Amino acid sequence: MPVTFTFGEMLSARSVIGSTLAELGETHENLWVLTPDIGATLVEFRDKYPDRFVDVGLAEQACVGIAAGLAYDGNIPVVSGMLPFLSMRALEQVRTDVCYPDLPVKIIGTHGGLVGNGGSTHYAVEDLSLMCSLTNMTVTSIGDPVMVGEIIRQSMHMTGPIYIRLAVGKKDKVLYEEGQHEIRIGKGIVARDGSDVTLFTHGTTVAQALEAAEQLAQDGVSVRVVDMFTLKPIDAELIERCAAETGGRFVVLEDHLSYGGLATRVADVVADRGIRLESFERLGIPQVYAGFGEDEQLRDKHGYGLSATVAALRRAVAPATRAAADEPAAV
Amino acid sequence: MPVTFTFGEMLSARSVIGSTLAELGETHENLWVLTPDIGATLVEFRDKYPDRFVDVGLAEQACVGIAAGLAYDGNIPVVSGMLPFLSMRALEQVRTDVCYPDLPVKIIGTHGGLVGNGGSTHYAVEDLSLMCSLTNMTVTSIGDPVMVGEIIRQSMHMTGPIYIRLAVGKKDKVLYEEGQHEIRIGKGIVARDGSDVTLFTHGTTVAQALEAAEQLAQDGVSVRVVDMFTLKPIDAELIERCAAETGGRFVVLEDHLSYGGLATRVADVVADRGIRLESFERLGIPQVYAGFGEDEQLRDKHGYGLSATVAALRRAVAPATRAAADEPAAV
Amino acid sequence: MTGATLDIGERHSVGELTDLAYELRRKLLELCGTYEGAVHIGGDLSVADILTVLFHHGLRVDPDDIANPARDRFVLSKGHAAVCMYIAMAMRGFFSYDEIVDTYGQLDSAYGMHPCKVQLPGVEASTGSLGHGLPLAVGMALSARHRGEKHRVVTLLGDGETGEGSVWEAVMAGRSQKLGNLVAFVDRNRQLMTSFAEERVMFEPYPDKWRAFGWNVIEVDGHDMAQLVDAIDRLPDPDSDVPTVVVCETVKGKGVDFMERNLAWHAGSLGADDLSRALAALDASRGTTAADVPPADTHEEAR
Amino acid sequence: MTGATLDIGERHSVGELTDLAYELRRKLLELCGTYEGAVHIGGDLSVADILTVLFHHGLRVDPDDIANPARDRFVLSKGHAAVCMYIAMAMRGFFSYDEIVDTYGQLDSAYGMHPCKVQLPGVEASTGSLGHGLPLAVGMALSARHRGEKHRVVTLLGDGETGEGSVWEAVMAGRSQKLGNLVAFVDRNRQLMTSFAEERVMFEPYPDKWRAFGWNVIEVDGHDMAQLVDAIDRLPDPDSDVPTVVVCETVKGKGVDFMERNLAWHAGSLGADDLSRALAALDASRGTTAADVPPADTHEEAR
Ligand SMILES: Cc1ncc(C[n+]2csc(CCOP(=O)(O)OP(=O)(O)O)c2C)c(N)n1
Ligand SMILES: Cc1ncc(C[n+]2csc(CCOP(=O)(O)OP(=O)(O)O)c2C)c(N)n1
Ligand SMILES: [Mg+2]
Ligand SMILES: [Mg+2]
Q1: Where would you tag: which of A214, B172, B201, C51 has the fewest CB atoms within 10 A of its CB?
Q2: Which residues of B touch C166 (CB under 8 A)?
Q3: What is the rounded distance in angstroms from the CA atom of residue A216 to the CA atom of residue C214?
């Protein structure tokens, strides 16, 4: 049963994972769900399909390897867990057992970004960079809780692996009205149109981006917000179009290290296509281990909160824009 | 006893590792060498300092964790092994146990790139991307066997971690005459000067880059070859200077996926600094798992061998240069 | 433990240690009653006795000289019990309990959900991702051995944590490197985060696993202070060849009836009402050990 | 083994199997004599009997129907013995031996240093990085169990490989998932790449480790064909609850005196001269088992 929702409402993305998988378990008899002891949201699936639910306990490597073994035999395994561990502890298994034979294993989890106040062992801040490094991997980061269900559903048709990143996933704002945007893996979403500057973002910071755009609108600045929820393959056409249509002004905002994630994916396209930009600025996690604090506090502290986003957008549209001083010293 | 060498000679980089560590073991009583059963070249160190040599067998995770434990107690541990395994199997240990507390652990190993004919489980083709993703990590890739010793020696003064990548390391050409270049971690080496186009590279393909430059010279094209052996922190000043001094024409050549490695590091700088390029082309491993074959065969097959390098340089200096057709379809 | 240069500090009787553990649990519950976010209270309560006996009897450490090279090293491998360690250390004089309560989990606090050596000198390693502590401890024990130091390296693992392969790699390394100065405590509370042990992961025969990996095994009731003290006093000489594991039979949530062996209390927070209920339960449970708590009803659901 | 629908193929006597293993070793040495690069000949020779008994007696597989869902699955976890598997499979009719010899390790060959399922249908998984095969096998066995299929999933590991934590995670999972259809062979040749077992890594008491992890353990001389056949014939019903490990006591380099228990022959290549020496040694060693080969002189050096 698809979740019903209302635009602007708060929803738990985790519960969307749970209910979507339980729904798909019905139509896909080869769908399995595996977890390394992070199964709280999978209870519905577990209770309906106990034979296709595998909790291996604390054993991320085996979890991914077992998923690959299932996939070799024609199954569609979903590995669900906490991304700081799934993206690193099991990385070689993801690369060698899943990506190399190009198996339809889905990795989905929470704690992407400086979220959850667990401290630096518990933040996945380089996960998108790691996953984009892997051949055959499709990499996504989702902010809208309803979209989580949509992406999982679309991914059922994929022959290769996909990585789906969430933030904490306990309380997430529904960003899009039903049918408002075409949602397709590999295509960015113009979440808000605009013509002065493009603000690229993904995941948990899409809501913040929309808020920043709204503030700029009050100054008469028209900000385009692109929800680039697919980082790999990247929507290069859209990036090129945005450069042309928003005066070559780009700001990239993400709850991820500011190098290696979306900002770097955009920089790759800019270099490959010889796109001439007027300004380019990254808002994301600097080269530090962030410590404790609530999500918003950490974003503010590390220079990619709402006010920093507003400031960066203002800088982007100001004359003589290149803000070289903002470039981190050594990266 | 430092290795003596002659320019142009073939030398085993592995034996340089072995002899350098054995030499440093004498002056640094807190230097340890650890390996997960890849100890053949460490015999000299092992025999001289058996108490500071730890072979844990097949156990990459423990190897890195133990190294971190040693470093917490004031030691300088070197972990030596095969990079496909060290860079992935132990990645979370590298991130969480080494990089987060910023410990002086050195990771050095072989099989960076499509080398050694071991097949796709045995090639480290995304390792530089992975390592550059880690905060506090210094990332290097060395082609000249003598330089390997120099970099290890320099790294003894570092307070944080370093990653040192080699190819197979059995037979490597001495590229630089003694004292010819200043070698400093964090600074690129202009291995050959030139004014028409810059060819950035690192590691095993530096020799190939020099050969390509020589061929272009016969056509009257002046190629600057930059050995960008430090990928992180990247020498942004040098990149900016090269853009200005070689007509904004860049080719990046590397035995690594063409996204995520040096080419991407350069693209990051280009975007950050708003560098206007006339042309930019990546030569590296495309998004495939490469299969079997000897090093040179695989480079040729995958479009980054010598002739492909020569062709790319010619394209770069040809009028109306942007070779958009060469951009991979989906990355 | 038989250290070399560092004095063990004040000597406590088993009764005093039991009182200290009670005090530690009280403080834990109080923090859990005031802090808004979730606290890993289940796994904290399950190691309160172990951490008490370590910081007040077992470990040769000096709160006034935290970098003394002769100190015993303690690595909290089950890093989610950080706050229990912070308070145990505060009670030993390392930190201020009030500062812990006042800043826990707040921006830039040194006291967060998992121990961070970078931010909190006095803890020996940054942990929180499970399966990391034992390899670190092996490295520290190797270093001590090499320097001829006589201190021990002690680590505390969750039983679920020992599902991690990295743990068994380190178990093998500790044995192969002949580290008699290495001691692992396992909090054998028979619960993971979302399941009971044996329900989804079969750990039994548990102590045999360590034995088959060549370790010296001591089995105790992890809430019986006399047994814990005895285990520590029986540890082999740090110069010996075989590392020791102390398998502590424990109860997750120990001391608070509604939390005991209850999957819903892996982590949680107590309102003021629940706090007084919890404190009353704690008083009622004084003097009980793991053997007194009935086995789990494994049909109950994780929340 | 007792499969469901697939026939086991031609039945061989122990004597015939022994001859097939001899033949396999001959072919291995010949390839090692012609191919210029290094071959993992030590670890190949150590599993030649195991792979022979599997492909000619144990595994219900059909070279003419490689995707038959009822087939037993075989995962070569110690992927560096790939060429030994290729030849064993060729002898069973899967591949052409000549094609293996002609293309081994060459550009775009399907036959390379480590098995690649993508390039070589017929092998069940891409392996080579050690510690991956058992988790894959657990997944395949789970799938078979779920579908009510009666086939087995068999994997072959190196003893050194079982130092990897990922192996123990999968050992635990295989037991917890109650996979009686899962069988692991361990090539217990007591050598890693650069050291002898027990010298730097203590594996003993080795079979106890598997027992303590809840597996059914069978111990055999891995070069004694009668014992190997017997072990396979004694495997429990695939529908039973406990996975089985067959710990095979073996000799790295078995059959060639100058390679036996010699660290220098983890990998290598034979010139024409050495090839004839090796073949002569092979003939001389016919009929010997692991028990006949003296223990290693562990003071010899790895090259
Ligand atoms: C590598 C890793 N995976 C997952 C987690 C999330 N997690 C925290 S506690 C826990 C359960 C641990 O069980 P156990 O070790 O028995 O400790 P207990 O909860 O009983 O204290 C899990 C899965 C983690 N911290 N690290
Ligand atoms: C994860 C990993 N680390 C290292 C290697 C390199 N390597 C190949 S074989 C080998 C030794 C393996 O020992 P064992 O499992 O006993 O197999 P044997 O050599 O005896 O056949 C090593 C270290 C590898 N293939 N995979
Ligand atoms: Mg537990
Ligand atoms: Mg072996």
Answers
A1: A214
A2: 61-62, 65, 93
A3: 66
CB A140 within 8 A of CB A163: yes
Q: Are strands A189-192 and A162-165 parallel, antiparallel or unpaired?
A: unpaired
CB C46 within 8 A of CB C248: no
Nearest to A271 among B133, B186, B280 (CB): B280
Judged by CB atoms closer than 8 Å, whether chains meet at C165 and D163 is answered as no
Query: B200 — phi, psi (to 5°)?
Result: -90, 140
**Strand partners for C155:** C75, C184
Residue B320 — pLDDT band, cuts 50, 70, 90? low
Which chains, if any, share at least 3 CB pairs under 8 A with chain C?
A, B, D
Cα–Cα dist B208/B284, whole Å = 13
Coil vs helix vs strand at B140: strand
CA atoms within 13 A on the CB side of B118: 26
pLDDT given for residue D185 in this prediction? 99
Q: D216 pairs with which residues across the strands?
A: D244
Which pLDDT band, with edges at 50, 70 and 90, does C303 fall under?
very low
**Contact across the interface for B268 and A331, Cβ inside 8 Å:** yes
Contacts of B302 in chain A (CB under 8 A): none
Nearest to B119 by CA among C134, A216, D112, D247: D112
Nearest CA in chain D to C168: D165
Burial of A319 (0-12, 13-18, 19+ CB in 10 A): exposed
**pLDDT for the residue numbered C5:** 60
**Mean pLDDT across D190-207:** 96
d(C-alpha D296, C-alpha D266), whole Å? 14
Are D201 and C169 inside 8 Å of each other by CB?
no
pLDDT number for residue D298: 65
Nearest residue (by CA) to ligand 1, atom 25, is C129
For position A162, what pLDDT does the model report? 98
Nearest CA to ligand 2 atom 18: D43
Q: CA C22 → CA C11, C47, C225, D60, D148, distances in Å?
A: 18, 12, 11, 62, 53
Which chains does chain D touch, 3 or more C-beta pairs < 8 A? A, B, C
Tokens of C177: 């490197």
Domain range annotation of chain C: 14-290
User: Is CATH 3.40.50.970 correct for D14-290?
Assistant: yes
> Per-residue pLDDT averaged across A295-302, rounded?
98
Q: Encoding tokens for residue A169? A: 């996933």
Across the beta sheet with B279-285, the strand order is B189-192, B223-227, B197-201, B249-257, B279-285
φ, ψ dihedrals at B42, nearest 5°: -105, 10
Task: Report CB contact under 8 Å: C139, B68.
Answer: yes
Q: Model-level pTM greater than 0.80? A: yes
Backbone φ and ψ for B230, nearest 5 degrees, come out as -100, 115
Chain A neighbors of C77, CB-CB under 8 A: none
